[in-house]
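Need residues for this backbone.
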């Protein structure tokens, strides 16, 4: 097992303080990929300018139904997700593997709202989904002055 960088070290390399050579960035990308940290591998591949590695990670994300990583790789590669056959494949793989939230995300991007609704029904008993749906339809209206922000009695 490779000793991976911590979050502060990653930040310093990716966003400013340290400026490593391309070879070091490529090695870091490889280390993160070999440990299964694909999003970090994509970040370091982008810094290294390694388009081939970024495309490899995009294809891996598609084939594993990892919509988050797939969409991130499309952004990094400046590719459009709209009506993308690969995005559809990613969505179908995600659905087949039971990664319903990833499938929903992909089908939403594709504009397939019927499929999105069907998938949401599939996981309707999931408490996170119930909470999300309720938060979209319920608006908090305070009944008492104490519930209003900034409108209560001022403290001296």
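Answer:
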């Amino acid at each position: 097992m490779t000793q991976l960088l911590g979050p502060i070290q990653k930040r310093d390399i990716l966003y400013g303080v340290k400026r490593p050579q391309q070879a070091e960035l490529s090695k870091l990308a490889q280390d993160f990929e070999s440990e299964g940290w694909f999003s970090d591998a994509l970040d370091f591949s982008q810094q290294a300018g390694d388009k081939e590695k970024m495309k490899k990670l995009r294809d891996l994300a598609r084939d594993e139904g990892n919509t988050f990583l797939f969409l991130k790789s499309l952004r990094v590669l400046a590719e459009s997700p709209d009506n993308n056959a690969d995005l559809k494949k990613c969505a179908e793989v995600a659905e087949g593997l039971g990664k319903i939230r990833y499938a929903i995300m992909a089908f939403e991007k594709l504009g397939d709202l019927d499929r999105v609704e069907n998938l949401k029904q599939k996981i309707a008993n999931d408490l996170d989904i119930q909470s999300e749906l309720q938060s979209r339809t319920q608006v908090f209206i305070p009944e008492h002055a104490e519930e209003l922000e900034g409108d209560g009695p001022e403290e001296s």
